[in-house]
Structures are given as C-alpha cells and as structure tokens.
Design a protein that fits this description.
Length: about 400
C-alpha cells in the first residue's frame, strides 16, 4: 500500500514537504519523495492531497481503567471489575481512534489492564499496543492504595509485590515514591516508600528485563527513586537542581503529565471534583510548571503522557498534554517528538515504533492540518494505521454529516 502526496513529519527530525510512504504488511517498506510513476494495479494507493502524516502517537502515562469522571478513584470503589472491563475497553478504542497507537498504562484495577493488553494483541478488541504495570506498589495507606494498589512495607515485601506483578504479566513495575493528588489524606510533597524499598522493586524489574516508573512529586522522593535506578519520573512537581543533575547523570526520563492538573483546575469543584483534589492541584500547579521548564532547559529527556483517566482527561486526550508542553516552552516539533521518538526510547521500543522509517511498524496518523504550525491540529485525525492496517477512517465523514 502507498500513501502518496503527503507532508511528512517522520519523527527523526526531518520534515518532508512532499513524500510517499510504502507499507508492506505490518511494516514500513520505505519513504520516498514520490511514488513510482507506474505502480502495479494490485497496489492500493491513497492520495492524501497534501495532508500531514506523523508517526502513531505514544501516550506514556495512561490509566485506561480510570474513566475520567470527576472522581475516578471514587468510581473504582463503586464499580465491579466486570463493569471496569467495559469502561477500559471503550477507552482503549477511543484512544486508538485519536491516533494513539501505543500506550504505557501505569495502573489499572485488579489486572484489567493486563487482560486488556492481551485482548488487543489477540485482536479481540480495538485498542492501542499496551505496556502495562498491573497494580501500583505503594506503602500501606500510601498514594494509590485501593483496588489499583498493592500495599507493601519493607524491602522484602516490596520485592514480593514486584514479583507478583511480574507473575501476573506486567511489563512495567510502578512504584509510589511520594504522596499524590487523587488519594485523600496524602501529601504530594512527602516521601512514601523508602529508598531501600524502591531499590528492591527496581532490582526485581531489572532481573526480569522489565521497565520501571515512579509516581514522584516531592523532591526527596524524586531523588531517592532516581538513585534507586528508576527509568522515569512521573509528574515531578517539585524538581530541584540536585534532582535534575541526578536525572541527567542517570539518563532518567521525565513524564510531566501537565494535563492532569490543568483539567482538574479548569473544571474545579463546580464539576464535581472532590475539594481535596482541587486544593492539592492548586497548591502544586506553579511548582509543576516551574519544574517542567527547569527540566526542559536542562535537557532532561521528556516524554509525553497526559495521565489519562484523571478528571475530564481520558487517554485519548493526549493532544491536551502536547498543547500544555507547547504553552510552557516546547516547540510543536519537540512536543511531537516527546510523543513519538522520545516516547519510544522510554519504552525501549525505538527499533519498532516512534519514527516513520523503513523497517519500523507501520503506525501512522494522517492529520487534516499542520501540527507544526498549530499543535492543536493533532486532534484533526483523518486516518489511523496500526501495524499497517487502517483502524480508523474519518475521511469524507464531515461531508456526510
Ligand atoms: Zn497516573
């Protein structure tokens, strides 16, 4: 199959004013300035009339099991697992249709995320390729406790908790270094798991060749978990210079998730968001934006994730995160890279996805508008291909309506 007459942002840093992409089966066969004049009649040719093509987007921080309602964690308390499966499947499909072909899912309910990943891989349901964490590991009463958490205290118990997630099929071990916004009664700034506990979890993931990620908001917790060898810092509200130095030294990724607080504060208590969440978000917002700018200027690798599933911010809303990254200093091209090539490196999948190059998986998004002139155009999704298959086709639909 050929996609011809496209403007191409290929994710390597190159923008092709006109290009043609050749897809063979699940993979990209090659990128050319134009298609050959005489193609065999059996080749499908989609003339895209100058539309922009970008690599399939990667959302590095989602919770497909959270429903984006005003109180998503509260919704879990009232929900059966069976209902949650349906919620998660719906969000998986919406996310894929928004051009997000891969997600890193950092915390589901009762291993629904793991089942969802397998169902997508088996072709049972439509959804993005998923890397999942299973239950998040937190201290007793710590951020994330409840149906999505595994409380553990002491290095031995944390080690066992990590092994349990690996046994259940997790690709990533996620630990809670500090308090957070969505759990009542915990402080985002305070450290929770101890460094020796964090080390135990990271060690178990490493042995199994798996990835690690840490919810980490306060500076002490951030530094402890970076020293423990974590692959990525999530949220990072209170990054100080020492934390940034450590992250640069260790090659730790930063996933700022700016959209989460943005949407909590935009909707507020009037929309039904619990007052404690709004109050904590308000206190953390300025620090979070300052931390992002400091890390960005220092050159910490930044990957995009919107913390999909938080209030009024489901996983398909990654474009909001890209808009926030641009509002706070990134260029549109840098924001796109944070959701493509840099994200693929964080997932250690850079040989498979993240750019449009020969040999990579054919994950492509066709946009009706140029995201480099206005990042909001990433919402104008016309066509989505995953593994060379058209999974969403919006072309001509506006005319029909
Ligand atoms: Zn999260």
């Amino acid at each position: 199959m050929w996609l011809t007459n496209v403007r191409l942002f290929d994710g390597t840093g190159r923008v092709w004013p006109t290009a043609a992409v050749c897809i063979q089966g699940e993979r990209i066969q090659g990128v050319y300035e134009k298609a050959p004049e005489h193609l065999p009649p059996e080749e499908a040719v989609l003339d895209l009339a100058g539309r922009t093509v970008i690599p399939g987007l990667i959302n590095c921080h989602t919770h497909l099991c959270l429903d984006g309602s005003p109180d998503p964690a509260g919704a879990w308390e009232r929900q059966t697992i069976t209902k949650n499966v349906l919620v998660a499947a719906k969000h998986a499909e919406r996310t894929l249709r928004a051009g997000i072909t891969t997600v890193r899912d950092l915390g589901g309910m009762e291993y629904v995320d793991i089942a969802l990943r397998d169902a997508v891989n088996e072709g049972l349901i439509l959804g993005p390729r998923m890397k999942v964490s299973g239950k998040v590991i937190c201290m007793t009463g710590g951020h994330g406790w409840g149906p999505g958490g595994r409380e553990a205290d002491g290095p031995d118990e944390v080690r066992k908790a990590a092994r349990e997630q690996l046994k259940a099929g997790a690709d990533i071990i996620k630990i809670m270094a500090t308090g957070g916004v969505m759990t009542f009664g915990v402080e985002p700034g305070s450290q929770q798991l101890n460094e020796d506990e964090m080390r135990a979890a990271v060690e178990e993931a490493r042995k199994a060749g798996k990835l690690t990620a840490s919810h980490a908001q306060g500076a002490a917790g951030i530094k402890a978990v970076v020293r423990a060898g974590i692959d990525s810092i999530e949220h990072g509200f209170y990054l100080d210079d020492e934390a940034i130095e450590l992250m640069l030294e260790r090659g730790t990724y930063f996933v700022p998730t700016l959209a989460a607080l943005y949407h909590i504060l935009e909707a507020g208590t009037a929309a039904g968001i619990p007052a404690f969440m709004v109050e904590k978000s308000l206190r953390a917002r300025d620090a979070q934006l300052a931390s992002f700018q400091r890390a960005y200027k220092a050159g910490v690798p930044i990957a995009a994730g919107n913390d999909g599933g938080t209030p009024f911010n489901t996983a398909d809303n990654l474009p909001s995160e890209l808009a926030r990254l641009v509002e706070n200093g990134m260029t549109p091209a840098e924001a796109l890279l944070a959701a493509t090539r840099v994200a693929s490196q964080l997932l250690r999948m850079e040989d498979e996805i993240g750019t449009i190059e020969a040999g990579k998986r054919a994950d492509l998004v066709v946009l009706d508008g140029d995201p480099l002139s206005d990042i909001r155009n990433v919402r104008k999704v016309q066509l989505v291909l995953k593994d060379g298959k058209i999974v969403h086709d919006q072309r001509g639909k506006e005319l029909e309506q």
